[in-house]
Amino acid sequence: MKLGVGEAPNIIEFKNVSKCYHDHPVLTDIHLEVKNGEFLTILGPSGCGKTTLLRLLSGFESPSSGTITMNGEDVSELPPHLRHVNTVFQSYALFPHMNVYDNVAFGLRCKKYGEQEIEKRVKEALRMVKLEDYMMRKPQQLSGGQQQRVAIARAVVNQPLILLLDEPLSSLDYRLRKTMQMELKQLQSQLGITFIMVTHDQEEALSTADRVIVMHGGVIQQIGTPREVYEEPANLQVAQFIGEVNIFTGEVLKADEKTFEIELETLVFELNNVKNFEVGQRVHVLLRPEDLEVYSAKDYPEDPGPDERTYPATVLYAVYKGSTVDLSLQLNTGKHILATQFFNEDDQKLDFTPGESVFVSWRLGWEVVLPEEG
Amino acid sequence: MHEYQMGKGLSFQRSAIALTWIWLSVFALVPSFLVFITSLLTPGDSELVRLQLTVDNYLRLFQPTYLRVFLRSWTLATISTMVCLGIAYPFSYAIAQMRSTRVKNLLMLLVIVPFWTSSLIRSYAIVAMIKARGIVNGFLLWAGLIDQPLQLMYTDMATLIGLVYTLLPLMILPLYVSIDKLDKRLIDAARDLGANKTQIFFKVLLPLTLPGILSGSILVFLPAMTIFYIPDLLGGAKTVLLGNIIQNQFLAARDWPMGATISVALTLVISICLFLYSRKFKNQQEFL
């Protein structure tokens, strides 16, 4: 049912799209191609333009310049009620004067379907979100999670080409949010339509999406699979927004086609020169907390020396998180870093205490290197 | 200490309730009761009323003259209410859509300002506007649109203009409140689900602002039925309405029992309307 990525045609295309409010740019030069049946999340801090991007898709805003096509048709100026797009709103925006059934039937009634057809489709949609027993309730008699489901049913009953979700889970508690994320993912593969979800929760963005769009300052910073975005961030902003990251900065000492040497916090490393850095260039080396390995100094009584490429450090504090321990460390050079250590059945030596001396290293090749910007 | 405060709060509560009841009794219940008693008495020639109980007055209500006046008043009040609604709805909607709260408040203040002047004086102002040598005719003659002054005074139209002008703010205020507090995202949701402008109005806007429409209509309709100086001043002798007839019975014809009877009948009709209104909206209060 779901078209394989690669052979599917583009359901949405943004070409050179910009949006300004009173000469103040909100979105700049957006290029975007979305394949049919993809689950896309738009991730970014508040004010990054992600909601505006969604409103351009739903038709509540039209672009100041550039074109938006859906299914090959230019929809840049098409009003919302003529688009084959439906939205699940952030606060659900259910009609308070209608019961669940009438809320879900609203879109079909606007399009003048017969009552029999409407009843069939509304009941099917409500069964899909497991609310067929709540048809006669008013929205205010439902819990937050149930209202959320009604909002989803009200949108998908219209069989849209694209379903837009505007921070749909932000007002639910943590556990319910997790459940709903899985249900959304299931629903999307069941329906086979394109989902575009706006969120500011990076975990949510990564766990639900086929591809993630990371936005900052009205510009798309990176589009990629969750793994690409996390492991190969396109720039510092993406790296900092998605997960924790330690940033080391240094100057290239030597460079050839294959490798370059760089001094980071007094140690010199030889790294793969995939980005063709030149001598003298300043470079950021990014390391995720889980890329770091921490050894207690008790296990290594002798300083392994500079050849081992390890940093002597002191534990500032340790946070126990069940399956992991988060460590805040201060290198002897003064730099603060974060490290995450995983529990391992064979290795129970993870009880770090504040003030303890440790050594920190990372597996070469796990780092991300980026040129210093501007 | 806790109990002491509780006791103090309770006694304050009791005296507040008692005061309200005394106020209502002295200024509403007792006068209404007196009016009701009067309606059951017999009119006298030398004295105001004779202490002889009768239901004769109520039977007289069904004379064609009174029924005609009642129907006329009802019709005029209904038309005034409709006209007020027609003007107030788009007006309130436009103000509610404005982004600046300061501009909104300023415009609503301008709606209320005329209330600070006596409505009797404002009715005289309308006379100055629409009389034969008034401002409207003067302008139309000057502009060459008419040769002879229009007969505006002492017509039903004049009464209607007076009623609408005087009562319009009473329609705008509740309407504005209910439109302004309407969640604008519901309109977005309706558009998103494929509703065109007409469908948005009838399926979302109208049902959700119905309480405002009905309160406004009641606030306009009730005075329109009973206000007597506006038809008196602007409609002249030709327009006899319920308010005028009550006033006449008391002040001119000196038939207090009949005046009281018409008042009681009017109160009864209005009470029934209000009762039906409250019944209809009892179930919907929860989301309003």
Overview of the structural elements:
The complex is a heterodimer of chains A (374) and B (288). By secondary structure, chain A is of the alpha+beta class. Chain A has helices spanning 50-58, 100-110, 115-128, 144-156, 174-191, 202-208, 226-231, 236-241; strands at 10-21, 24-35, 39-43, 65-70, 73-74, 85-88, 162-166, 194-199, 211-216, 219-224, 246-255, 259-264, 267-272, 282-287, 292-296, 311-320, 324-331, 336-342, 357-362, 368-371. In chain A, the strands form 4 sheets. Chain A has a 6-stranded mixed beta sheet with strand order 6-7-8-3-9-10, sandwiched between helices. A 5-stranded antiparallel beta sheet of chain A has the order 13-12-11-14-20, with no helix packed on it. A 5-stranded antiparallel beta sheet of chain A has the order 15-19-16-17-18, with no helix packed on it. The model of chain A is unreliable at 1-7 (pLDDT under 50). Chain B has helices spanning 2-39, 56-60, 64-97, 101-112, 119-130, 135-142, 156-180, 184-192, 197-226, 229-235, 242-251, 256-282, and strands at residues 42-43, 49-50. In chain B, a hairpin with a 5-residue loop joins strand 1 (42-43) and strand 2 (49-50). The longest helix of chain B has 38 residues, at 2-39. Chain B is globular, with a radius of gyration of 24 Å. The two termini of chain B are 40 Å apart. The chains are: A alpha+beta (374), B mainly alpha (288). Chain A binds chain B through residues 58-60, 79-82, 85-87, 89, 91, 93-97, 106-107, 109-111, 138, 140, 154-155, 158, and chain B through 183, 185-186, 188-196, 199, 203-204, 207-208, 284, 286-287.
Features of the shown structure:
heterodimer; A: 6-stranded mixed β-sheet; 5-stranded antiparallel β-sheet; 22% helix; 35% strand; globular; disordered N terminus; B: mainly alpha; 1% strand
Number of helices of chain A: 8
Provide the gyration radius of chain B in Å.
Answer: 24 Å
Runs of chain B in which pLDDT lies below 50 for 5 or more consecutive residues are none
> What's the N-to-C terminus distance of chain A?
47 Å
Q: How are the strands ordered across the major sheet of chain A?
A: 6-7-8-3-9-10
Number of strands of chain A: 20
Sheet having the most strands of chain B: 2 strands, antiparallel
Proportion of residues in β-strands of chain B: under 5%
H/E order of the elements of chain A?
Answer: EEEHEEEHHHEHEHEEHHEEEEEEEEEE
Q: Treating each run of at least 4 consecutive H or I residues as one helix, how many helices of chain B?
A: 12
Label the overall shape of chain B: globular
- Which spans of chain A of ≥5 residues are poorly predicted at pLDDT below 50? 1-7
Oligomeric state of shown chains:
heterodimer
Helical residues, percent of chain B: over 70%
User: What gross morphology of chain A would you assign?
Assistant: globular
Q: What's the pLDDT, averaged over the residues of chain B?
A: 86
**What percentage of the residues of chain A does DSSP assign to strands (E)?**
35-45%
Mean pLDDT of chain A: 88
Please give the share of residues in helix of chain A. 10-25%
**End-to-end distance of chain B:** 40 Å
Largest interface: pair, residues per side: A-B, 27 and 20 residues
